[in-house]
Amino acid sequence: MFEAVLFDWDGTLADTRRGIVVSFQKALKEINLEVPTQYIERRIGIGASETFREILQAANRRVDEKVVKQLVERKSKVQIQLADEVELFEGVEELLAALHGKVKVGLASMNNRAVIMHLLQMKGLADCFDAVLTVEAVSRSKPEPEIFLKTAQALKAAPVRCVVFEDSIFGVKAAKAAGMACVATTTGVYGGEELAAEKPDLIVETLSDPQILPFILG
């Protein structure tokens, strides 16, 4: 049995894809840049600052941290404005309810805290987590394990006793690097084969998969 369960948010618990893409595109438009939708989608999970830095570098623009900060703030505001479009994935509320009181539950997201807390309140999930850590808590993006290690620390749980739920290859890499078990879900942009290459302990299509609770609770 695991002591703690750590969830990613975007693409794992909630379908936030369109809001993220639109918010990135609107922010980039203000500096006369445009990138394909797929480029943004496949970087969901590494954090907005890191993604904006990559985009600026690829466009041969100077990476000015003041500009990066402004872009992140604009992206966060737009994503909050689009919050009504966000839907929880199948099985999320039931799984969180089933875990309540049995294990510690943490949220470890590379999104910005203002966005995450707004969405948790909107969806009535704010009380489902014993710890909520966001990109502001770390200095290194996924696939570095920092976000998961710090969340485990906040939960007072040993990494080896933690299981992470992730939808991206960056997230699975980070979970494994943290020495944690990992359940990968195909609810994000990455397919089963891509996720399997990172060797998660379990791959599921939805969080209502009957394998999940026995895996966590033994």
Which key features would you list for this structure?
43% helix; Rossmann fold; DNA polymerase, domain 1; 2 domains; 218 residues; globular; alpha/beta; six-stranded parallel β-sheet; two-stranded antiparallel sheet; single chain
Could you explain the architecture of this structure?
This protein is of the alpha/beta class. It has 10 helices and 8 strands. The strands form 2 sheets. A 6-stranded parallel sheet has the order 5-4-1-6-7-8. A two-stranded antiparallel sheet has the order 2-3. β6 (162-166), α8 and β7 (181-185) form a beta-alpha-beta unit.
What's the count of strands?
8
Shape-level CATH architecture of the largest domain: 3-Layer(aba) Sandwich
Radius of gyration equals 17 Å
Shape verdict: globular
Number of domains as seen in the coordinates: 2
- Helix-and-strand structural type: alpha/beta
CATH topology of the largest domain: Rossmann fold
Number of helix segments?
Answer: 10
Distance between the termini: 5 Å
Q: Kindly state the percentage of residues in helix.
A: 40-55%
Largest sheet geometry:
6 strands, parallel
**The CATH homology group name of the largest domain:** HAD superfamily/HAD-like
Q: Average pLDDT across residues?
A: 97
Quote the beta fraction: 5-15%
Unreliable residue runs:
none
- The side-by-side strand order for the widest beta sheet comes to 5-4-1-6-7-8
- The CATH class of the largest domain is Alpha Beta
Element order: H for helix, E for strand: EEHHHHEHEHEHEHEHEH
